[in-house]
Design a protein that fits this description.
Elements (H helix, E strand, L loop, with lengths): L1 H15 L19 H13 L6 H13 L9 H6 L15 H4 L13 E8 L2 E6 L5 E5 L2 E4 H11 L15 E6 L2 E10 L4 E6 L6 E5 L4 E2 L2 H4 L5 E3 L23
Antiparallel strand pairs: 1-2, 2-10, 3-4, 5-6, 5-9, 6-7, 7-8
Protein name: RNA helicase
GO molecular function, one term: hydrolase activity
Organism: Drosophila melanogaster (Fruit fly)
Length: about 250
């Protein structure tokens, strides 16, 4: 039966083919430069169907977002990693401030850069601490703590030194108790009257949500110190300073 079917198909195949070639379909989409909704949908269509990248349309979206940029929002991760943001409605910032482009003053500018790997998010994403600037002073709860970290811990262990933050504002430095350690944090955003999103500064670069009642004011003596952690996969990475060899003074992953 299968052989008969193939022979019959081969015999009549030429009759089934359309003698006329159909033209390629075309469509026209009208969109003003201010019509961000339709422009985004068109860009999304291009990307989903693997068509040529609509650079001109993406440029319109980026320009409009820059004009409406709120200063208090954190930087968009897609913009930092890929240079474009394809989210429909992105709530993050799409412009980088000067202090985000330039490396901090305490970063080494040349020579060998020694650092200790404290967190390994993936083989390509690390959180490290510069060994020359912040050497390990003690091990607290099996964690290599610097002299600054020890001072913060001993200071806030005393209840008299812990004062609840009166008014959390994005961009300020504060202190939280994280895994039984008192640590400095950067206030990223105030999610509600009761919750605040913060980023660790000295032991990791992760972000966590805390209740406002768990947020303490950071004393001035600790605000003058720079951040100890460097996220090797973000804009704060050592790659923005110098292409360096990774030298691990301790042959151990923490």
């Amino acid at each position: 039966m299968w052989a008969r079917f193939k022979n019959r198909f081969s015999l009549f195949y030429a009759n089934l083919k359309s003698p006329t070639t159909r033209p390629v379909g075309q469509s026209v989409v009208f969109a003003k430069p201010t019509d961000l909704e339709n422009i985004w949908k068109l860009c999304d269509f291009y990307m989903k169907h693997k068509l040529p990248r609509p650079g001109h349309l993406l440029g319109i979206l980026s320009q409009r977002r820059l004009e409406e940029q709120p200063t208090s929002r954190s930087l968009c991760h897609q913009m930092a990693a890929f240079g474009d943001c394809l989210r429909h409605k992105c709530m993050y910032r799409h412009v980088m401030w000067r202090d985000e482009v330039l490396p901090p003053d305490h970063y080494p500018k040349n020579g060998l850069i020694r650092f200790l790997v404290l967190v390994c998010y993936s083989p390509a994403a690390l959180a490290v601490r510069l060994s020359d600037q912040f050497p390990t002073a003690i091990r607290f709860l099996n964690f290599p703590m610097s002299d600054l970290g020890e001072r913060v811990q001993r200071h806030y262990e005393l209840e008299a030194n812990r004062h609840m933050h009166p008014n959390p504002v994005p961009g300020e430095m504060a202190v939280v108790k994280n895994i039984n350690r008192y640590e400095r944090v950067h206030i990223v955003s105030v999610e509600s009257n009761a919750m605040v999103l913060v980023q660790l500064l000295d032991t990791s670069t992760e972000c966590f949500s805390y209740k406002t009642s768990q947020l303490y004011s950071c004393d001035k003596i600790f605000k003058v110190w720079p951040y100890m952690m460097i996220d090797d996969s973000s804009m704060d990475s050592l790659q923005t300073v110098v292409h360096c060899h990774r030298i691990h003074p301790e042959k151990r992953w923490i």
